[in-house]
Amino acid sequence: MTYPETLEYLYTRLPMYQRIGKSAYKKDLTNTVKLMDYLGDPHTKFKSVHIAGTNGKGTSAHGLAAIMQSAGYKTGLYTSPHLKSFTERIRIDGIEIPRESVVDFVNRIRPVIDEIEPSFFEITVAMAFEFFAKEEVDIAIIETGLGGRLDSTNVITPEICLITNIGYDHMDMLGDTLPKIAAEKAGIIKKGVPVVIGEATDETMPVFKQIAKNNEATLIRAGISDWKPHNLAPNYLIKNTGGIEAVVEELRRMGWNISNDTLIEGLNNINKLTGLKGRFQVLGMDPFIIGDVSHNEDGLRTLFEQIGELCDGIVHLIYGTVKDKELAPLFNTFPAESKIYWTESDVPRSLKVEELAIQGVMNGLEGECYKNVNEAIAQAKQKVQPKDLILITGSTFVIAEIEDL
User: Fold this and answer.
1) Does domain 281-400 have CATH number 1.10.760.10?
2) pLDDT at 22 over 60
3) How many CB atoms lie within 10 A of CB 32?
4) How far is C-alpha 313 from the geometric centre of its chain's CA atoms?
5) I need a surface site. Which of 134, 167, 376, 398 has the fewest CB within 10 A?
């Protein structure tokens, strides 16, 4: 198969959560274990850091990868979902997995795909782990998908775990209370492996403590970082820096050579070192345009708070989302001084713009409708005033369809 044919096979042959939703979610590790066995257990052949959480796990993963790269370590990075290219999910020292490696892997794995019918995510995890093992990375930073306990990545035994925070998201799969969600995320805690808790509440901390105790795992509560970015950085990165620094401190105790200068260098150059996209990404300065993949209540609230600090005028908010979201809590986070442009993305899970507009009206929000995010951006550019700001957010898929991202 060619690379385009391989991607078409992956997208159409395998159930993909990002495209079809809950029906693609596999609630056990059976398929992943079978894939690891078929590939010769690559997950046992490299060292790793494992990251779970509702918000912040992606930026934390990229931050840690940037720091380890700056320290001179050959660093693997597995994240999801991708924005523009499938190969964004699997990187070593910021360089995406070669297309020919993707084709080769899928060709070799097709017999087992036909046998066990894994999900898209299970196959990408297997691809990443084999690639990291084959390339002999010094360490890999591994971000979970939806949860933790039953997440396909949860076959590794890492050097250390990080749980960034717990919020209300994917409740139909992870539980309808914060303690239930925390228990699922804390499922990445392994026997004897230290775990850093980046953020916790009176509801979630007892869950973390009990699961850590059950696994004889040292529990470290992250402190407040005093890192000051040299450039415009998202508040949620700054918020998660305490957890990142706590992980680095534990790695130092294990013998990893990471200086303070290296840590700061990594944090100040995350985008350059890792290729991070879609996280408070400045897409233009005249007018000021920001694209951000925040999509749940906590993430949007943090994002909008920072936008409020930056914008002295009106926020031109371009927003699209998916079908399986409770919208009222999300709408309640919207900036008061905003002009709304409803939009949608070209994936099956996307909430049609007409329905989104109706839901908006039901919650007191009026907006204009655009079938494509780029049409919405073009209209916002025509209406924006000098002190205004254009913000595109709400769904990874909306951000992914921005031209020239």
Assistant:
1) no
2) no
3) 26
4) 30
5) 134
